[in-house]
Amino acid sequence: MSVLRPPEIHFQKYLGSKVPPWLETYHLTLMTIPFAFAVPLFGFLARSNIQWMWGVSLMIVFQYFTDLVDGEVGRQRNTGLIKWGYFMDHFLDYCFTCAVLAAYGFVLPLTFAHEPAILFVVAIGFLVNTILAFAATGEFRMSVLGIGPTECRIGFILFNAALIFPGRDVMLTIIPYATVIFTCGLIYIVYRTQRQLWRMDMDAKRARERNQSH
Fold first, then answer.
1. How far apart are CA 177 and CA 42, in angstroms?
2. What pLDDT is attached to residue 167?
3. For the packed helices 82-107 and 149-164, what is the interaxial angle rounded to 10 degrees?
4. Which CA distances in Å does 164 have to 32, 92, 107, 109, 159?
5. Quick one: pLDDT at residue 107?
6. Which residues of the chain have a pLDDT value below 50?
7. DSSP bridge partners of 147
8. Overall fold of domain 5-213
9. 139 and 202 in contact (C-beta within 8 Å)?
10. How many CA atoms within 13 Å lie on the side-chain side of 34?
11. Cβ–Cβ under 8 Å, residues 57 and 156
12. pTM of the predicted protein model
């Protein structure tokens, strides 16, 4: 579980109960689409005026709230869109992440132009690991070492602020190190996942052998 998840659960239930009746769970899920289109537009505009990165941060905040409450609204109202919600929610989260990385591709200097591409590959790796692990174990985990989607969104917003305010050059020097850290994190989580699956396979094998011996 991520660091912020315990208090976030209570906040999620509270917000879910405050959503007006005319706003359904699928409306909230699909609102990620216009947010995802707006993000690279703001990134493009930020090429001439870096203040437009505040628009990117605002879209991240909006997407956080809709993503936080769409499933909660579905549970409280028993809409029944469990499989659709699981698929669309995570697919659109992926699309939104791609949009944010595309926005950075517009504003980062040419010397850092490859960084969003690398982070895109790493983000895909985390997503693939989560989906495959869920298929193999039935356990869905969205956090790694206490860092989940909410913490990542906060990181994006802080990074945007660092690009806008003085100190941008210092932040840019950190980008390669952050890329290395995220890559190492992916390697670690994949290693941990395969060890868990190996133990599960071996436990199942020993159980079958015991049953056969009886």
1. 26
2. 62
3. 20
4. 24, 27, 11, 14, 9
5. 85
6. none
7. 144
8. Four Helix Bundle (Hemerythrin (Met), subunit A) (1.20.120)
9. no
10. 6
11. yes
12. 0.81
pLDDT for the residue numbered 168: 66
Residue matched to tokens 């040419």: 110
Angle CA 167–168–174, to nearest 5: 100
For residue 3, give Cα distances in angstroms to 75, 111, 181.
24, 34, 18
Q: Residue 167: how many CB atoms within 10 A of its CB?
A: 11
Contact 82, 171 (CB under 8 A): no
Q: Can you tell me the distance from the alpha carbon of 96 to that of 142, in angstroms, rounded to the nearest whole number?
A: 16
The beta-strand segments (E) located in the chain are none
Whose tokens are 């056969």? That residue is 212
Encoded tokens for 90: 């995570």
Q: What is the DSSP letter of 23?
A: S
At which residue do the structure tokens 């409450």 appear? 69
Q: How far apart are CA 87 and CA 70, in angstroms?
A: 13
Q: Is 114:55 a contact under the CB 8 Å cutoff?
A: no
Question: What 3-state class would DSSP assign to 204?
Answer: helix
For residue 40, the one-letter residue type is: P
Strand partners, 69: none
Distance CA(87)–CA(127), nearest Å, equals 13
Other CB atoms within 10 Å distance of the CB of residue 196: 14
